[in-house]
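Can't paste images in this forum, so I'm doing it all in text. The chain is below; anyone willing to post the predicted structure tokens underneath?
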Amino acid sequence: MKDKIAIIVAVIVTFIYGIALVAMWMKVGDIEPDWGRRLVLLTGLEAIVFAAVGWLFGKEVNRHAVDAAAEANARLRDEARERGSVEGKGQALADAIRTNSRDGNAFADGPSLRDLADRLFPPQ
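Text version of the structure:
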């Protein structure tokens, strides 16, 4: 709701600025004091219009950056959670093998389960 109102206000202010520019263009030949006063008023309106238009365009540019950062953050958080889950399970398996293997329970052609657990997950 607040964003819609701000957009409407920015569009209205920009429209008023356009009307003021046309009015100034039509009064180009006026005498100097009148022209200077109108120019001061137009400059004040110009600052408000530039702020409004900058807000409109700045919001759109930043929205894309914020969305991309949020997406990257969510992806990294999911990867870290998955990595932590896998590492935790692997460490628990390695600890169970170390605890329950007294003779090593060797594989048929390879190292013992205990040696494998120690190599993959060094004891802490």
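The chain has a mean pLDDT of 76. Helices lie at 2-26, 32-100, 113-120.
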